[in-house]
Write a structure and sequence with these properties.
The structure holds 2 protein chains of 2 kinds. By secondary structure, chain A is mostly helical. Chain A is about 75% helix and about 5% strand. In chain A, strands 1-2 form a two-stranded antiparallel ribbon. In chain A, α7 crosses α10 and α15 runs antiparallel to α17. Chain B contains 19 helices and 4 strands. In chain B, strands 1-2 form a two-stranded antiparallel sheet. A two-stranded antiparallel ribbon of chain B has the order 3-4. The longest helix of chain B has about 30 residues. Classes of the chains: A mainly alpha, B mainly alpha.
Chain lengths: ~500, ~475
């Protein structure tokens, strides 16, 4: 394999961004600009599909590995994918073009700068998912803050400054401790290469502290209760495309980090802290679901539901069961598709009515039927109806949880009911009921591009709901190997 | 006599200063000529330094009172280049205030000469001599815009406080001389009696003096006032060049004679470092003047570079030097931006004057943005690597407290950098600024921004340059 496919995936969006940087941003060029960005990200998507086809799912080894000397005798630039990371790369390359396509009306000013930020963001996110060196991982992980800060701050709503600052400082605060941990690992083991660290293991004396340092970063990013408060603010103020990126991909970086680093590098510490994760996850599931029930802002409601869904993800990861971790990954992919779609749905009505409040709407089912159907599909997927991808993830997670801890699993299952409650109630209040607000009669149904975007998201949601095999086949071997390694290291106390 | 060759850069620089002074006095309206000649002198001196000394091994001259080694050559070259860039981008600013005079380049040259002597010094007397030469020039530079009250005030403040710190420093020197019988660093190292507590007093006094020069907390009080009052081009000089020399002396002074007393001074340095990082970050939050803000931010950055010195290892020193080099680069970019905020022959230096810069001047704003994120230490920009190396050296010595406080203070510092970005990008635009900046100003902004941006592609080059520094 001579063609550096992963580096191309990372670089391509940046090259597109560079291209846009030299294009003048004015009304006449807007079409070209969007076309260039769309083209870049679409090429990237097909490249990643090609990657998936070439991917050999019968082995847990890292594939397409590229290694180059970066800082001599210190850090090598090393990228590669295994079953765990490849799906996230696909998710990223799939969501980004849809994001770019969706910026029709919402972004009126500085379109090219917005698309530059989105494309650079894509580069960084792909980098996060395929880097096999802790420093490189940190670099991409942190660098993503810059474009996201600008997306929220420049193109956001009225309280955008507060939200952007909160987002940036929360995440940065979590991450600096991870940097300390990474340097400590280098000092202990003389390398930051993930593969080498997997083989050599990390001194058991330090594992707990290192785990906590990584946890501080991932917990903020996930976000876990009680450090989740930045997320609703960021979501509410970000423009639609920003919310989509944030919910669909950014939140997955932490879940991925938990699997790759917390479980992979610190098994004995993970074992010790599992109760902590269980507690926080269960609180997130129950508590934020109740909060979501009370929201009057649609975006905020979906943001809180994201926190609850990510609670399932962390719960599933730390069951250390085949089903649990598989479920977590599928849940993340599904949440990536569904929450992206839900934010887009909110964006659709927001573009028309300029209100995100639930009580503005009601009874729109007869005015915009196409919208109502798709919105219903995603609502049902979000609450985990069988036949949608949301079900597969939640079911596997709960199955894993029942194997590991009965009480936690029971409480988490209750969360499913509350989840159904807030989503259905949201749908009922927005779509059904009496048409009170007469302005709503002017609303137009989905236009072609909106229909296209939402259908693009609906197809995989349904497909993987009925037939999750392609996903499970891809991740199965890597996860069973991860769990074997985990148990082996736990038994041999390293 | 052939050894004189090794101090050729200093000799050449002093002769040039005298020549330029005479030239300036006898030839009317020669400020432009003197400026160009000074630039040439700086470059030639850098070239000589590079050719003559960078390849040689450690050599001591004049009864071991001057040391020429890789560290000194490298730092001299950085100093000279930084001075060159300061000089070349300040001409427009000076012309605006009609203070484009021959004295300006000559004063800068003399202070550079003082710094070179400081960097070379292996003896307390020589070190003090260099320090005073650079300080005297700096006092005058601070008051250079003498028609403005603020500028005169800045110079006077700087003079009074600096004189006080020089006094403390001299007192420390005399204590050390009294207890070891020599002013030479190597002799002191040999004569060192580690049980002698009075020696610690001497070290403390000298450290106070040096901390003052490098504006580390708690000896930083002069910096915001002086930085604000001085002409911006001089502030640029203040924030970059003297710190390079002072850092070198810090390293040389602590590691050559007093390495055995590391237990005594390490605590002090850790304190200075933590206090500077935290105070620099917190105090900058409330500032409304850009130059004051830069002053506090430079206090914070000094804290980071001192963290590297505090480790007591070669790695630490190297990381400090990398830090200060990248810091100089970022500051150059930052001030190039400040010097571009000009409208109708007036320079704007309030934070609010930045509002909406991204609409009116997108290229300037994006450079500013990159520089600010880099100063905040966000990857993949150069500023992150600077911090990364320092904290790597710090953690390798298991100084976790210092590392964690340092990194947490970067989060606080990120706040005020973000605030500037917020004002530039999120706020309503104001009137446009002039765009007819000189070539060199544009050049320095573009070059520094690009270097900061693409540093991550070739991070090992700088490491290789400093990896030859081996002082312990």
């Amino acid at each position: 394999m001579n063609f550096p496919i992963l580096s191309s995936l990372i670089l391509l969006p940046s090259i597109g961004a560079l291209f846009l940087f030299f294009t003048k941003s004015n009304k006449k060029n807007n079409f070209t600009i969007k076309y260039v960005a769309l083209f870049t990200s679409a090429v990237n998507f097909f490249l990643s599909i090609y990657l998936w086809i070439l991917f050999d799912s019968s082995t847990s080894e890292f594939q397409f590995v590229e290694e180059r000397i970066w800082i001599k005798d210190f850090i090598n630039y090393k990228v590669g994918v295994d079953g765990i990371s490849i799906l996230f790369i696909l998710l990223t390359t799939f969501i980004t073009p849809l994001c770019i396509l969706s910026v029709n009306n919402s972004i009126k000013e500085r379109l090219s700068e917005f698309l530059i930020a989105v494309l650079i963001m894509e580069s960084f996110m792909i980098g996060v998912f395929c880097s096999l060196d802790l420093v490189i991982f940190y670099l991409f992980f942190e660098a993503g803050l810059i474009p996201m800060f600008l997306i929220i701050g420049i193109w956001g709503g009225s309280r955008r400054v507060y939200s952007a600052f909160k987002f940036f400082l929360y995440t940065l605060l979590g991450s600096v401790l991870m940097l300390v941990a990474i340097i400590t690992i280098y000092w202990l083991n003389g390398t930051t290469d993930v593969v080498k660290l997997y083989n050599s293991g990390i001194d058991i004396k330090y594992q707990n502290l290192l785990w906590l340092a990584f946890f501080s970063s991932f917990a903020v990013k996930t976000p876990m209760w009680p450090v989740h408060t930045w997320l609703p603010d960021a979501h509410v103020e970000a423009p639609t495309a920003g919310s989509v990126l944030l919910a669909a991909i950014l939140l997955k970086m932490a879940g991925y980090g938990f699997i790759r680093f917390s479980l992979g590098l610190f098994p004995s510490a993970s074992e010790i802290f599992t109760p902590l994760i269980y507690t926080l996850s269960v609180i997130a599931i129950i508590f934020t679901s109740f909060i979501a029930l009370m929201q009057e802002d649609m975006k905020k409601l979906i943001a809180y539901s994201s926190v609850a869904h990510m609670g399932y993800v962390t719960l599933g990861i730390f069951t250390i069961q085949q089903q649990g971790i598989e479920g977590s990954i599928i849940q993340m992919i599904s949440h990536g598709l569904v929450s992206a779609a839900l934010f887009l749905c909110v964006g659709v009505v927001y573009d028309r009515m300029h209100s995100r409040l639930i009580n503005t709407y009601g009874g729109i089912v007869s005015i915009i039927p196409k919208y109502s159907i798709l919105f219903m599909l995603f609502t049902l997927a979000a609450l985990g109806l069988p036949g949608t991808s949301g079900f597969v993830g939640e079911f596997l997670i709960l199955m894993g949880a029942f194997k590991d801890n009965f009480l936690v699993a029971v409480i988490a299952s209750l969360g499913v009911i509350i989840g159904a409650a807030y989503m259905l109630w949201l749908y009922k209040r927005v779509v059904f009921g009496k048409l009170i607000n007469t302005d709503l009669k002017q609303m137009l149904d989905l236009n072609r591009s909106e229909l296209f975007i939402l259908s693009c998201l609906a197809v995989p949601t349904l497909f993987f709901g009925f037939y999750p095999d392609p996903l499970i086949n891809t991740i199965e071997v890597s996860i069973s190997d991860l769990i074997d390694q985990y148990n082996f290291k736990l038994a041999s106390k390293t | 006599m052939e050894n004189l060759q090794l101090v050729l850069p200093e000799i050449f620089l002093s002769l040039s200063i005298m020549f330029l002074l005479i030239l300036g006095v006898f030839k009317k309206n020669s400020s432009r000529l003197v400026q160009s000649l000074s630039l040439a002198v700086l470059i030639v001196t850098a070239v000589i330094t590079f050719n003559e000394t960078i390849s040689i091994n450690e050599t001591k001259l004049f009864n071991n009172s001057i040391i020429i080694d890789y560290l000194s050559s490298l730092m001299k070259i950085i100093t000279l280049l930084a001075a060159f860039l300061v000089l070349i981008i300040s001409s427009n600013y000076l012309k605006t205030f009609q203070i484009f005079k021959i004295e300006y380049p000559i004063l800068i040259l003399s202070s550079v000469l003082g710094m070179m002597v400081m960097i070379n010094s292996n003896d307390l007397i020589i070190f003090y001599m260099g320090l005073e030469l650079q300080s005297l020039a700096l006092y005058v530079l601070a008051t250079f815009n003498r028609d403005q009250i603020k500028s005169s005030e800045a110079g006077l403040k700087y003079f009074v406080l600096s004189a006080l710190s020089s006094g403390l420093l001299l007192y420390g020197c005399s204590l050390i001389y009294g207890f070891t019988g020599s002013t030479n660093f190597n002799v002191i190292a040999n004569q060192l009696n580690t049980n002698e507590y009075a020696l610690t007093f001497g070290i403390v006094f000298i450290l106070v003096g040096l901390a003052f020069k490098i504006s580390a907390v708690p000896f930083h009080m002069w910096a915001p006032d002086v930085y604000e009052g001085s002409p911006t081009s001089v502030t640029l000089f203040f924030t970059m060049v003297p710190k390079i020399a002072a850092l070198t002396v810090f390293i040389r002074f602590l590691y050559v004679p007093f390495l055995n007393l590391i237990d005594q001074w390490q605590m002090i340095l850790i304190f200075l470092s933590i206090a500077s990082m935290l105070f620099g970050a917190i105090a900058a939050i409330g500032q409304t003047n850009l130059k004051r803000l830069v002053a506090y931010s430079s206090i914070g950055h000094v804290g980071y570079s001192l963290a590297g010195v505090a480790t007591g290892t070669n790695d630490g020193i190297q990381s400090s030097i990398i830090y200060i080099t990248i810091y100089v680069l970022m500051n150059l970019g930052l001030f190039s931006c400040l010097l571009m905020l000009k409208r109708d022959n007036q320079y704007y230096e309030k934070i609010d004057d930045l509002s909406g810069l991204s609409k009116n001047h997108p290229m300037l704003a994006i450079s500013f943005l990159i520089i600010l994120f880099s100063l905040a230490g966000i990857p993949p920009l150069a500023g992150f690597f600077a911090k990364f190396y320092v904290f790597k050296a710090v953690i390798e010595q298991s100084m976790y407290f210092l590392a964690i406080v340092g990194l947490l203070s970067t989060v606080v510092a990120a706040f005020y950098y973000l605030r500037l970005i917020k004002i530039m990008y999120f706020d309503k635009e104001k009137e446009k600024y002039d765009t007819d900046h000189g070539f060199w100003l544009k050049f320095s902004l573009t070059a520094s921004t690009l270097l900061i941006l693409i540093y991550f592609i070739f991070p090992s080059q700088l490491i290789e340059v400093v990896s030859r520094i081996n002082i312990i």
